[in-house]
Write the structure tokens for this entry.
Amino acid sequence: MYTCMIVEDEEVIREGMRFGIDWASYRLNLAAAASDGKEALELAGRIRPDIVITDVVMKEMDGIELARRLQADIKDKAIKVIMISGHENVDYIRSALKLQVVDYLLKPFHEEEFAEVVRKVVADLDEERGQQERLRSLERRNELSQAWVRDRLVENLSAGPAKQTGLDAFAELDDLLAGAEIASLSGSDQRKVVRAVKDYIQSAFREELTLAQVAEAVHLSPNYLANLFKKNAGITVNDYITQIRLAEAKRLLRDEPGLLVQHVAERIGYKDGKYFTKLFKREVGMNPSEFRDRA
């Protein structure tokens, strides 16, 4: 929910908006209704709304001046301002849009127009909130990494050179950061990543395929991808590649009985036929020729 305030000097319109609009359906909490810009500025300083919906022409501080003062007086919060007026002067509207005014509704407007504007502003607020959360996550990761490196360095210096190499230490740090990064993603975002990885593997398994190549294809680090995939799919990336390849191998052995085992191996991404036979027997419980005979 976001906090909203309306500013309108005509009481009938102000009260109509206050009680005639289902604010909760827009995920808004109507925190105040002011009769002019001066009162609105005082209220905004106390309640710090996310959105201000204001008339333009008012006796005590008009909407343009209110938007300017909100921008100047409340510097640590970018309040979204929506202007409502019968004023159709283009230059006047442009002067409003130079401030924090995100949209402009001309009276009389339909409920659909109002809904479209408010939903757009709420969507913008959602995006900004998401960016702030991602920034905080990065800051937490940075604090974590700095503290970890400091503690590890002290430990290594105390233990001597045989304790742990620098490469080992940074590999462990990478694993730690990968876990922190996964925790910052929502469950739905993690599932989207896993789906994209599976789709890529299913289209590319006939080639030589490594974890690093898969990670590069989906623009992730190998450690991050390995941790995220295992957490959500319950299987490692390499095991999933093997699973897809062996499923295709079984299909080829059933559907193309004249195909040599070496050629089956090559068509599913393995150059070494002996390695493929050994892997197939380990995973399926019989070698490829026996599987073909039984199929």
